[in-house]
Amino acid sequence: MENNAFAAVPMQTIGPVKIIGDEMNDEVMVPLATYESPLWPSTNRGAKASRLCGGIRSTIIDERMTRSVLLEAPSALECRQVVEQFSSHMATLNEVIHQQSRYTTLIDFHTQVVGNLLYLRLEFSTGDASGHNMTTQAADSILQWLLKRYSFLKYVSVSANYCTDKKPTAVNGILGRGKYVVSELLVPRDICLSLLKTTPEKIVDLNIKKNLIGTNLAGGIRTANSHYANMLLAFYLATGQDAANIVEGSQGIVHCEVRGENLYFSVTVPNLIIGTVGNGKDLVFVKHNLELLGCREQREPGKNARRLAAIAAATILCGEISLMAAQTNPGELMRAHIEFERRHDIATTVSTSAELDTV
């Protein structure tokens, strides 16, 4: 196999998406890389709604990247000793961490003790990086420091699954991992009828019966949405992210309600792991896409990544509201898939923005 081989994934831009909030007030074209060709026109319909309705408001609630380590002690008593003293060592541990990276800072921690096993969940700020390697490196440094200070401790693993990385769990939504973003849109009834071909009441009813009750019946973990993963994977591939993080990234909740005559529609994305620097960001097409999104500017550390997270969550909303609108109408979903997936040339699926605006 050639060392420089690439897997080609079709990529198109949708939009512009209008996004407002603390991180930005802008319209951006959004690149999406996917084999699922109907995703482009569907998400683009949501993008048009964003422009007609004054913009999607994206708010970052929290941000932190985590790595959990696992240590073994003679008994639970010694584990408790380490836990009780850990907070007093935070300043010292950050001095150790900053010897390797000035952008990585330990901001909090959580613990679980099982028998004589100590699970330590470390939480960091990581600037514009998603932080996978930065947190692992910092966790390694903390482990070495702990093993020297507490001679009774034994190393078990630098990753203890209490992080949790690329697995569907409840802990990330509860304690936070990556960017916690909420995107909201208020859609007037006439736009629901003319663009989305449905009513606010039908979308709210579908969200209750499909996303909330249906996901509960399926045993979903802190999640109630239609297809976050579709938009998130396409966005991740186009912007050089670790695509496996869609596992936890696609956990999130759609909340909507009728407000007067209008539809309030929101997506909550609590585990959005995303960055603008680091591995994968030096590829030519990734650089181009990050520039297109305005996420390669000279800004205060962390600002580019927060802007990218705001755009990602808004893009999820665009795709989510369009699909849910389609599913309120019998047969619409399948008709769209047949129309776009049976075309011979996938590049023609989104040949013009005018065509997309009519979908």
Radius of gyration equals: 22 Å
Shape: globular
Number of helices: 13
CATH superfamily (homologous) name of the largest domain:
3-hydroxy-3-methylglutaryl-coenzyme A Reductase, Chain A, domain 2
What is the residue-averaged pLDDT?
A: 92
**Structural class designation:** alpha+beta
Question: Would you list the SSEs in sequence order as H and E?
Answer: EEHEHHEEHEHEHHHHEEHHHH
What is the CATH domain class of the largest domain? Alpha Beta
Helix content: 40-55%
Largest sheet: 9 strands, mixed
If you consult CATH, what is the topology of the largest domain?
3-hydroxy-3-methylglutaryl-coenzyme A Reductase, Chain A, domain 2
Give the beta-strand count: 9
Low-confidence runs of at least 5 consecutive residues = 346-359
Strand content: 15-25%
Distance between the termini: 42 Å
- Which architecture of the largest domain would the CATH scheme give at its second level? Alpha-Beta Complex
Number of domains: 2
